[in-house]
Structures are given as C-alpha cells and as structure tokens.
Specification:
Length: 98
C-alpha cells in the first residue's frame, strides 16, 4: 500500500503482515507513506506477529503516521522477525499517542 503525493488515509486499526501463528501468510508486506501532506491515521498499529517476517513500514520525505499504539513484533524464533520501520527525510514523523 502506498500513500503518496499528499493523499490521506484513516482506519480504525492496522496490521501489516499479521499471521495467526498457524499459517505462514503474513510475510513480506510493505506500506509506504511519503511526501509532504501525505498522512495515515489509525488506532492500534501492528507490524508483524506470530510467524510473520519481512514486513515493513516506510515513512519518507515528509510523510506522517499517527496511531494510538505501536507494536513491531515477531515470535517463534526463526519463524518470525525482520519486521521494521524506517522513518527518513525532513518532516517525516510517526506520532504514537499512547
């Protein structure tokens, strides 16, 4: 998913690459928020989860993400991990209110 060019998105909660721990279905997902005026507002924000790996959020070049909470996670050892966030560029921001 990409939010760019001043676009705005909002939702109640967000999961990037979530897996239920049984099926390996939450891998290598990406979301991008980039450019001045581009924003994503959400409640709870989770990246990764049980047996989920390689998931990424990039906030670049003035993009803004606002969420009530943040959880970047992985569990089950080698079956999860490498989930992450990149915030780069002037004005790029992630605001977590809790």
């Amino acid at each position: 998913m990409a939010i760019t060019g001043g676009a705005k998105a909002s939702c109640a909660s967000t999961r990037i690459g979530y897996s239920d721990g049984v099926v390996y279905d939450g891998n290598y997902n990406e979301a991008l928020v980039s450019d001045p005026g581009s924003s994503w507002t959400t409640g709870d924000f989770t990246i990764g989860g049980q047996r989920a790996f390689g998931n990424k959020l990039s906030i670049l070049n003035g993009g803004v993400v606002t969420s009530t909470s943040v959880n970047v996670s992985g569990s089950y050892g080698d079956d999860a991990g490498n989930n992450g966030v990149v915030v780069s560029g002037t004005g790029s921001t992630w605001i977590a209110t809790n």
